[in-house]
Structures are given as C-alpha cells and as structure tokens.
C-alpha cells in the first residue's frame, strides 16, 4: 500500500467561552475544525480530524484536495493609532 504525506495549513485561534477559553484549530483548505484546551491538544485533534476526513474521502472515492504550499507565512501586526482618529 502506498503512503503519502499531505500538508495542510492550520490556523489556531484562542476563543473565549463561558468557562474560560479554548484553542480552535481550523484547516481552511478542507473546511474543517477542531479544538482543545491547549494549543498542542488543538493541533493533535485537528490532525486526527484531517486524517479521518481524508480517509472518508478515499472511501467515498472522492478527490482529495491538493496539499497547501509550504511557502506560506501567517503573522499578526500591532498598529498604534491615536484614539481621536477612531
């Protein structure tokens, strides 16, 4: 049996909830998400979800989305503005 490695971009955001917060991991190319109490847990959970999603596509004989390019970088920028400008 042939084994392939597929790489998909995962975005993780901290989300507030009534009892604290969780980390939500989202794979935009696949349109799936999962969560965890820690970043590591969220990553492990989304990896399981991605594997299950791809295996289900294979079972249903549906095409697997192309892996994302490794040439992608996400960052945040903090910009200061005068409060009178808002």
Short description:
This protein has 86 residues and is an alpha+beta fold. It has one helix spanning 39-59; strands at residues 11-17, 20-27, 32-36.
Features:
single chain, 86 residues, alpha+beta, 3-stranded antiparallel sheet, 3 strands
Descriptive notes:
The chain has one helix at residues 39-59; strands spanning 11-17, 20-27, 32-36. By secondary structure, the chain is α+β, with helices and mostly antiparallel strands. Helix content is 24%, strand content 23%. The chain is built from one helix and three strands. It has one domain (11-85): Double Stranded RNA Binding Domain (2-Layer Sandwich). A three-stranded antiparallel sheet has the order 1-2-3, covered by helices on one side.
How much beta, percentage-wise? 15-25%
CATH architectural grouping: 2-Layer Sandwich
Order of strands side by side in the largest beta sheet?
Answer: 1-2-3
pLDDT < 50 stretches: none
DSSP summary: helix tally: 1
How do the helices and strands line up, and which of them pair or pack?
Blueprint: E1 11-17, E2 20-27, E3 32-36, H1 39-59
Antiparallel strand pairs: 1-2, 2-3
């Amino acid at each position: 049996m042939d084994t392939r490695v597929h790489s998909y971009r995962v975005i993780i955001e901290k989300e507030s909830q009534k009892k604290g917060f969780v980390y939500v991991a989202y794979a935009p190319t696949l349109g799936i998400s999962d969560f965890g109490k820690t970043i590591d847990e969220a990553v492990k959970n989304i990896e399981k979800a991605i594997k299950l999603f791809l295996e289900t596509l294979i079972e249903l004989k549906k095409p697997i989305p192309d892996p994302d390019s490794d040439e992608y970088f996400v960052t945040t920028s903090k910009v200061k503005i005068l409060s009178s400008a808002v």
